Amino acid sequence: MTARTHDLAAFTTLGIIVFSYPLPHITLATGLVAVVANLVGGIAPDIDQPTAPLWRNLPVGKYVGKTFDKLLGGHRFISHSIIGLVLFGSGWYYLLHILKPSFPALDMDIIWWAFIIGFISHLHLLMKEYHGYFRYRLNWVSRLLKL
Fold this sequence. Notes:
Layout: H1 3-20, H2 28-43, H3 53-56, H4 61-71, H5 82-99, H6 108-146
């Protein structure tokens, strides 16, 4: 899947949640930063791919991307799991609360939740993709065994 697909899924999921549940009063700045955090969360699991857009846009990204690929066990391994969700979620929570004194007008908890919603939407898309893939493979194997 492309980054645009994950962005669209993350934004759509955030929109569904925003229109389905009553939200506390938030500032415009919090809302805008939450949308950006949501989009970042939607593509964050792909940080383990050395050819990810993030690494292509950094001057030494090629080398850093390869390091992250090995560190996270390759594409669709740790970062595409519940462990990855906990690691990335904890890291973002810590980072946002370090930045909180510098940005007192932002509600960091809402921004964190927007990131988590984006991250989960990425994992959900892949579960849908793999479910169909495995069903196709199992049907193919069962047809082969019947011959």
